[in-house]
Amino acid sequence: MSSFEQVIDECKQKLEYIANDNSVPRNIRRSANEILDTLNKKDEPLFLRTSSSISILEDISNDPNIPVHTRTLIWDVASQLETIPVDE
Q1: For the chain, which terminal residue's Cβ has fewer other Cβ atoms within 10 angstroms, N or C?
Q2: CA distance 52 to 39
Q3: How far apart are CA 34 and CA 75, in angstroms?
Q4: Integer Cα distance of 69 and 86 in angstroms
């Protein structure tokens, strides 16, 4: 397993936690599931999956209704995904 796949797996675990956390607003949980679906699309290039996911994460991190612990997780996932190079 490449280190990039490891990063993706860690991000997926955090996103699953967000998606299953009932203290998180429904729209944020829905977005977390959408990102999970995007990251699981093996037929798309890795950089495309990560850049799409980062874009969604940036949108939801600005939601005023998001709990602080969830916002921190979202920033963490986004920064992990940003370590994946575009030219991979």
Answers
A1: N
A2: 9
A3: 17
A4: 29
Q: Which amino acid is at 35?
A: I
pLDDT tens string 75-87? 999 999 999 987 7
pLDDT digit string, tens, across residues 37-62: 999 999 999 999 999 999 999 999 99
Q: What percent of the chain has pLDDT over 90?
A: 85
What DSSP character marks residue 45?
-
> In whole angstroms, what is the distance from residue 26 CA to residue 30 CA?
6
Return the exposure string of 4-20: e unless at least 16 CB atoms fall within 10 Å of the residue's CB, then b. beebbeebbebbeebbe
SS3 call for 26? helix
> What is the pTM for the complete model shown?
0.91
* Cα-based distances in Å from 46 to 13, 14, 50: 18, 18, 6
